[in-house]
Amino acid sequence: MQITIATGDITTRDTDVVVNAANSSLLGGGGVDGAIHRAAGPKLLAACRELRRTSLPQGLPTGRSVATDAFDLPARWVVHTVGPNAGAGETDPELLRSCFRTALAVAEELCAESISFPAVSAGIYGWDPETVAGIGLQEVLAHTPGTLKRAEFVLFNDRLAGIFARKHEQLAG
Ligand code: AR6
């Protein structure tokens, strides 16, 4: 799979899938979640409410991923994942690994060819960006692609993008 590291706003990407760093409620929040909901429009919140009413009455557990349409975004689908919250004691790297792995699996179920990830858990949820870069890149590098051909990490600033680019060089050799 081709991997790119980009600086910018993930809501502008036209990959088939944009991954959202959501919370268990799926009902929106700050950070990238807020940006995605603003850009996708109110139908995204309605779709998330419908998921809560039907398949996820207790919300989406940490480390799991679920898809909705992307509505007004250039992407086709939003895959919502719930990163671990370090501030609430969720420091098990397997939880973060699971976010990337389940998001990739959901994208494959959708027959997506491209996917964009933000730095899940590296903002409000307080994880060290180096750790997020390592885990995210390892999971994408370890993924056996079905339909997926391309993965992007879309970072909000050049400092974060530098961390991801250096980690990519280390891991991909
Ligand atoms: N495009 C790309 N990256 C962004 C964007 C954007 N438009 N906006 C922010 N980031 P965060 P978390 C970066 O806090 O740590 C929400 O309230 C940001 O700089 O969005 O997983 C949810 O509802 C950081 O590097 O997600 C949850 O309650 C990265 O995205 C909680 O925050 C992730 O930061 C999730 O916290």
TrEMBL record:
Coiled coil: none
Signal peptide limits: none
Family annotation (SMART domains): A1pp
Domain Macro: 1-172
PANTHER family per record: GANGLIOSIDE INDUCED DIFFERENTIATION ASSOCIATED PROTEIN 2-RELATED, MACRO DOMAIN-CONTAINING PROTEIN
Protein name (database record): O-acetyl-ADP-ribose deacetylase
Organism: Arthrobacter jinronghuae
